[in-house]
Amino acid sequence: MRVLIVNTSERTGGAAMAANRLMDALNNSGVKAKMLVRDKDTDTLTVAGVNAPFRARWHFLWERMSILTKLHFNKKNLFKIDIANAGFDITRLREFQEADIIHLSWVNQGFLSLSDIKKIAASGKPIVWTMHDAWPATAICHYTKGCKAFMTACRNCRLLPGHGSDNDLAYKVWKKKKQVYDTTVISFVTCSRWLEKQASQSALIGRNPITNIPNPIDTHVFKPGDKTKARLNVGLPKERRLILFVSQRVTDERKGMAFLMEAIEKLTDAHPEMKENTGIAILGGHAEELEDKLSLPVFPLGYVSDERKIVDVYRSADVFVLPSLEDNLPNTIMEAMACGVPCVGFRTGGIPEEIDHLKTGYVADYRDADDLMKGIYWVLEEADSDKLAQQAVRKVVTNYSQAGVALRYIEVYNQAMAYKNYSL
């Protein structure tokens, strides 16, 4: 079986990391898996690029400009929307033609247009599509934020000026997507039960099969290690307890930094002694912007792509906090737990599926900074840290190992080929 995993980026973002890990897991399980990306960053032989950087840039800019005009040149929601009006016809590529299964991952921002996806469907090859967010089940948004329009037909979109209209950009993209979905069988895979429920309610996906399979993680890489040595390797203080926050862009409102800042302020008001023995390590782009904005010492690490260094950052932490306001199945929580770090997050999205409350960390009430503060304090001061760490590692090994996830995907691939043969 030959599988081609299609993702916009080779290395940047959670979906890219998940796609790489799945490719490795499949290859280790006897499947010939390759990746096809728009943005190729390494010389890895199992990853092919479209090798057209100028066209890639043009597609990206054209889509953003098309969206910006619909937003009346207000940039607020510019990157909350994708309309897939520009992209590459990958059906002509050798990697595509050699594949038995086309596995779409995150393909936005000018990599695949809806017309390109329609050509993939017309090729007759079985399609599996992993949903890293809600975009495949909606017209233009990646996160619904409580909107129910996708259950019937997206229109009057609140991301558009004046909340759109009955025939707004959202509805036009909805109709184009539906034409694609109605012409073939696409096997959708969600990374969390939360997203599976949303996808199953989408009038867009309709009759297409939906399965829930979590992202895999390499537990031979992400595993517990010596904390003192790890801190030395990444330049973090060895004498303080460390709260860790990780995000590709730490100022992303959806990742909830505002709630972490509020929780830390409440924590230091109630326990001022923590200012002397506790700090916050922040990993991700724009981390330096937060250096003077929290009531505990901040240690900004910036954006890091070296996997070994990332593992050392996790091993340095005493607690990992991700107060996302909406998230699928965050790789960062999985990575922290694999390294034996208890986690704290809000009860939203797939986060409660990862964190077992009071067993591997603390699940705080949604948007409740007081409860978030309580969870951080509980992990640092009241819980049995060794027991939490052991249970966190056990949860990851049991549920997210590469071998187990690969076997579940192989089953989906076999079913997808059966659907295609049946339809023929």
Detail the topology: elements first, then pairings.
Elements: E1 2-9, H1 14-28, E2 32-39, E3 47-49, H2 53-70, H3 94-98, E4 101-104, H4 114-122, E5 127-131, H5 169-181, E6 186-190, H6 193-200, E7 210-212, H7 227-234, E8 241-249, H8 257-270, H9 274-277, E9 278-285, E10 298-302, H10 307-316, E11 319-322, H11 331-338, E12 343-346, H12 351-354, E13 361-364, H13 369-382, H14 385-399, H15 402-423
Parallel strand pairs: 1-2, 1-4, 2-3, 4-5, 5-6, 6-7, 8-9, 8-11, 9-10, 11-12, 12-13
Helix pairs in contact: 1-15, 4-5, 7-10, 8-13
Tell me what you see in this structure.
This protein has 424 residues and is of the alpha/beta class. The chain is 39% helix and 17% strand. The protein has helices at residues 14-28, 53-70, 94-98, 114-122, 169-181, 193-200, 227-234, 257-270, 274-277, 307-316, 331-338, 351-354, 369-382, 385-399, 402-423; strands at 2-9, 32-39, 47-49, 101-104, 127-131, 186-190, 210-212, 241-249, 278-285, 298-302, 319-322, 343-346, 361-364. The strands form two sheets. It has a seven-stranded parallel β-sheet with strand order 3-2-1-4-5-6-7. A six-stranded parallel β-sheet has the order 10-9-8-11-12-13, sandwiched between helices. Strand 12 (343-346), helix 12 and strand 13 form a beta-alpha-beta unit. The longest helix is centred in the C-terminal third of the chain and has 22 residues, at 402-423.
